[in-house]
Amino acid sequence: MTLRAPLLEAVEIVKRFGRVTALDRVSFAVGPGEVVCLLGDNGAGKSTLVKILTGVEMPTAGGLRVDGEPVTFATPRDARARGVATVYQDLALVPLMSVWRNFVLGAEPVHGRGPLQRLDTRAAERLARETLAVLGIQVSDVRRPAGTLSGGERQAVAIARALHFGARVLILDEPTAALGVRQAELVLDQVARARARGVGVVLVTHNPQHAAPLGDRFVVLRRGRVVGDTTRGETDSERLTELMAGEEPAPAEDGSAP
């Protein structure tokens, strides 16, 4: 039996800013149909790692692999070309643009030829409406400004857009941080749908309660280092919280390890 290479792999990533080491030999991987939760408090190195995974920053040492092949992401465009898409919490959609315009942004359908090409508004609206419906996202009117959607709806639309345009790895940067319970559930439902489609998902969060029920693997960062890499059956939200905070389990009364 031949084992498939991970979709995306970080290998011994080091990132230094002057004399400050933001990431110290960080490694992890995400495979097809897998949700990897990347956890850590503020300052743990999550944001720096996301920037490296998406081509915003280059590592000082170490590297990335896609399908087992070493790659270099010099720009976010390089990452997208290899199927790595990122949805940021505050930059998911352009608020003043319509939902359909946001959905096709950068991949607009056109009609006509040469200098007579024009945006095919009807095709774009239909594409957005039908794709959102297939993914279970209810938007009453795709012509409404994206800024009128709730936070969870905006995140869900951005995830649907990435999936439609070929994302094989979806990186979600704190997608539930500013959301209420119902809106967070909407986003997490889209994460589960992406996993069911065979997409590899990297869910970046500081909330173990959101991560524990959904993640297949949990990678915990603290001060730029990986301090935990476990699977769903090996941990729970309480243990993830302990790892993030730097707490270790108390020893048993007889002095042996618990």
Give a nutshell description of this structure.
The protein contains eight helices and twelve strands. The chain has 258 residues and is an alpha/beta fold.
What does the model show?
By secondary structure, this protein is α/β, with parallel strands linked by helices. It folds into two domains: 8-93 and 151-245, Rossmann fold, CATH 3.40.50.300; 94-148, no CATH class. The protein has helices spanning 46-53, 76-81, 99-104, 121-134, 151-164, 181-196, 208-211, 237-245; strands at 8-17, 20-30, 35-39, 61-66, 69-71, 84-88, 110-111, 118-119, 169-173, 200-205, 217-222, 225-231. The strands form three sheets. The protein has a six-stranded mixed beta sheet with strand order 6-9-10-3-11-12, sandwiched between helices. Strand 4 and strand 5 (69-71) form a beta hairpin. The radius of gyration is 20 Å and the shape is globular.
Give short descriptive properties of this protein.
single chain; 258 residues; alpha/beta; Rossmann fold; six-stranded mixed β-sheet; four-stranded antiparallel β-sheet; 26% strand
Q: Tell me the fraction of residues in β-strands, as a range.
A: 25-35%
Under the CATH scheme, which architecture of the largest domain would be assigned? 3-Layer(aba) Sandwich
CATH superfamily of the largest domain: P-loop containing nucleotide triphosphate hydrolases
**Which whole number gives the mean pLDDT?**
87
